[in-house]
Amino acid sequence: MLKKIDHIGIAVTDMDVAIQKYSLLTGAEPSEKETVDAQMVETSFFPVGDVKLELLSGTEKDSPVSRFVEKKGPGIHHICFEVEDLDTTIKTLSAAGLTFIDLASNQGAGGTRVAFLHPKSTGGILFEFAEHPTDMK
Amino acid sequence: MLKKIDHIGIAVTDMDVAIQKYSLLTGAEPSEKETVDAQMVETSFFPVGDVKLELLSGTEKDSPVSRFVEKKGPGIHHICFEVEDLDTTIKTLSAAGLTFIDLASNQGAGGTRVAFLHPKSTGGILFEFAEHPTDMK
């Protein structure tokens, strides 16, 4: 069901400072910054092997990422799994008793369709599932 | 310098409950539990693609993982990069102004040699670097 780890989301306080640090740390070039309105975040990706580090900065004071940083400080925010079929993943894990967060919008970065498991289902960890446009039927 | 993401460390409160949840979530078989004395943790790994999720549970009340859980709750604890040469990585990043945590012991899980960057160097994120036995010269 899970193809691979797609990316690891990292909540930062200052996107431009973070981009400098992660360029140094990874030796990689970041992607262009992209704002994802549905998640109220600005993002930038650094590739490491075939996984990406996704820097995240909230665009609104009450966005989930801004609230995470206010509560816990900057830190690792979520893990995203790439899946072949998002709808099947949602059905299978829901049937197994796991709960998804608001499924009304599933717009992710880079044209993906995404869904998030509620951290209450997973012992406090936020997991995202992403279906890439090339995988869509 | 970085070969890939080796694993993502996840701090949990109850290892056996977590193993059940991650078996369901990933559809993968966990590794045998292993205690890493130098880090005061019990670990269990779940493969997802070529990256592993490392469940971590503190074995001592004042171990770094136990303190993380007490302060922030269970959550994603660190990201580990696989490197070819740990000593070169330490030298290069130290020269660039990043600070490593206590380099006195570098015993990791599965016979790896490891080092951790101080979160103060990285905007609050704990990064580990691991050299696998097969990579050692």
Could you walk me through the main structural features you see in this protein, from its secondary elements to its overall organization?
Two copies of one chain form a homodimer. The longest helix of chain A is centred in the N-terminal third of the chain and has 12 residues, at 15-26. Chain A has helices at 15-26, 64-72, 86-95, and strands spanning 2-11, 34-36, 41-48, 51-58, 75-83, 113-117, 127-131. Chain A has 137 residues and is an alpha/beta fold. Chain A has a single domain (2-136), classed as 2,3-Dihydroxybiphenyl 1,2-Dioxygenase, domain 1 (Roll), CATH 3.10.180.10. In chain A, a hairpin with a 4-residue loop joins β2 (34-36) and β3 (41-48). The model of chain A has no long low-confidence stretch (mean pLDDT 91). The interface between A and B is large, with 39 and 39 residues.
